[in-house]
Amino acid sequence: MANQQFDAIVVGSGISGGWAAKELTEKGLKVLLLERGPNVEHVKDYKTATTPPWQIPHRGRRTQEMLENHPNLKRDYVLNELNLDWWAHEDTDPYVEEKPFTWFRGYQVGGRSLLWGRQSYRWANVDFEANAKEGIAVDWPIRYDDIAPWYSYVEKFAGISGNRDGLDILPDGEFMPPMPMNCVEEDFAKRIKEHYKGARHWIMGRPANITEPLPGRAGCQYRSKCWLGCPFGGYFSTQASTLPAAVATGNLTLRPMAIVRRLIYDKDTQKATGVEILDAETNETVVFDSKIVFLCASALNSSAILMRSATDVWPEGLGSSSGELGHNVMDHHFRLGARGEVEGYDDKYYFGRRPTGLYIPRFRNLGDDKRDYVRGFGYQGGASRSGWNRDVAEINFGAPLKDALSKPGPWSIGFTAFGEILPYHENTAKLSKDKKDAWGMEQLVMNAEIKENEHKMRVDMMADAAEMLEVAGAKNIQTYDAGYTFGQGIHEMGTARMGRDPKTSVLNGYNQVWDAKNVYVTDGACMTSAAAQNPSLTYMALTARAADHAVSELKKMNL
Amino acid sequence: MSINRRDALKSMVLMMGGTMVGSTAILTGCAPENQIEGLNFSPEDIALLDEIGDTIIPDTDTPGAKATEIGAFIVMMVKDTYDGENQKAFVSGINSLRSNFKSENGSSFEDASSEDRLAFLNKMKADADAGTEEAKVIYMLKDLTVLGYFTSEIGATQALNFVEVPGRYDGCIPLKDGDKAYAI
């Protein structure tokens, strides 16, 4: 029987894959969208999205069983009884930690687009120029001007709310109205602006939560339960946004439970002819043919698929001719910052649960500021009043305790820093020679760590947070460092970087694999450096740009 | 966890014996490695915990913790979320509370006046704050009572302000006397 044929195959249905599917189907291509996990239908499968607290069995606390079964997920907030099915489990999908690596994956339709933090920031030109200027790794093959129109394009469709702050380091975009700051944040942000004379800014976060309706999406209801799936389509996810658009074209075939083992590569044409999947329900191997393939399986998994492909030509896999496939793993190092108490504002409160906080764009190593490390970091945080779960150690049991906890507690404010990790060749994710997962596929072996540049940066990340809180007027300021293991930022990047030279990069300036031009990799794998901003908006823009390129090349018969 | 530790936890339950909390433990079944296998609580245990909970968060203009079945909630949380060490501390702490109350007040906790109960638990808290190990179960009782109560339907919707779908965000509004904190 002949293989089923498509114009394009998209591997992975998360943020990048959803965009690829939307763009390619809208341009008239017949697209097969493959997802390794089960389907999650918009609204219908958001099983806990409206569960009130009293119906949450352990009220959000972790059971010993959860802790025992999830040694990796338990390393951070992701281990939660409400959406445990949406995080890949360690038993069926293990990996090898040669060095500590925390890999939080979403193996279902929508991937981590259902679970992401939604912070959506443009990169600035300094981010694209940094490698070349500092002689680190390789130069990005693109500049801000190449991607700026695509940022605009994806922002308008995805729906990003934010203030136009006019900052070079964090370019403005096509924003819906921003969510407001609360009383404390507004006053403190003013003091920061005055004190640092415009060199540091506390701005409203720019989340992919919509403050105005979009077609089929009512908009944010300020429930702040985004990561359970939003029945109101309040935030950008594959389900709320790109998938309905792709389905509406009539050109999309979605196939869940399809684990891609490898691309089929044709030596003579130097192109991929399709993909081989393992059906996760029947264990059957199926091959699909297509003219082009978009790998959007999440950074490390996209590279793993390349590593399993064309091994008869290149033992290390398709795209390995540069020696960079599986190298230069990046993330954002974080989990440190400062917090403090806020005096006063006792008669002030807010209404609603804002699903974002403030953002402090990078200010280090810019202009005249020179540190003993390169690059920089940003912060996320904000102010709020504590509630019933605060400590009131001094109050007696009985009516006094009940009464106290029924009222809002004092205000506090805090920020967590997110720092850039440099692309180090020796930071790798490669296939294991002997260890396999439940599907018989080679496990990934993680061997990555932060180094001197990041450790020096962490000193500032903590101290600067405390300094700014002090300036802003917080009291009893405490710094914290909860420790960081690689991957914990859930911003895995690199392993198939873009570049200008096939000898030193895996992808070209349009995300095409140098060694197979009809294969595009547009998720985090393609990143040449990491910047300090949350990366998903850049994946969206790169994916839309690559899809446009692919269709134009197909028309020119170049692929 | 080694087999030895698991056996040690089993032995601990057996040693407690008698009419103590946890005495209905059946040492079979499957529990996570580091928990007491088969830890269970009797209806009397749950009734005692209801009264303790209701002393910590009493009936006022809104119902207290007992109305939310706090005893059943506490034992469920101890069984599911506590590790073996904490389960052991909880069980022995409750046993001490029971016997200490009786020796100090001459009656059981359940039969005592609400004033005596409150005074006893506040004293326990003061002792625990001063470092008395035996009294530290009071932290667990307070923690689970507060958690269970304010996340219960009664606590969330009557003692607190439960706004399921706010629909908007106002960053700065006045807080008036008597305004409640948000439940979520």
Question: Mind explaining what this structure looks like?
Answer:
The complex is a heterodimer of chains A (559) and B (184). With 559 residues, chain A is α/β, with parallel strands linked by helices. Helix content of chain A is 22%, strand content 21%. Chain A has 10 helices and 21 strands. Chain A has helices at residues 15-26, 64-69, 125-134, 144-158, 183-195, 238-248, 299-307, 399-405, 452-472, 536-555; strands at 4-11, 31-34, 96-97, 160-161, 175-176, 203-204, 252-255, 258-266, 271-279, 285-295, 332-333, 336-342, 348-351, 358-360, 377-385, 411-420, 428-436, 442-447, 475-481, 512-513, 516-521. In chain A, the strands form 4 sheets. In chain A, strands 1, 2, 7, 8, 9, 10, 20 and 21 form an 8-stranded mixed beta sheet that branches. In chain A, strands 6, 11, 12, 14, 15, 16 and 19 form a 7-stranded antiparallel beta sheet that branches. In chain A, strands 3-18-17 form a 3-stranded mixed beta sheet, covered by helices on one side. In chain A, strand 17 and strand 18 form a beta hairpin. In chain A, helix 1 runs parallel beside helix 10, helix 4 crosses helix 10 (536-555) and helix 5 packs across helix 9 (452-472). The longest helix of chain A is centred in the last third of the chain and has 21 residues, at 452-472. The radius of gyration of chain A is 23 Å and the shape is globular. The model of chain A has no long low-confidence stretch (mean pLDDT 97). With 184 residues, chain B is mainly alpha-helical. Chain B folds into 2 domains: 1-30; 35-159, no CATH class. Helices cover 54% and strands 3% of the residues of chain B. Chain B has helices at 3-16, 43-56, 70-81, 84-105, 114-129, 137-150, 153-159, and one strand spanning 170-174. In chain B, helix 1 packs parallel to helix 4. Mean pLDDT of chain B is 87; it is low at 1-29. The interface between A and B is large, with 51 and 54 residues.
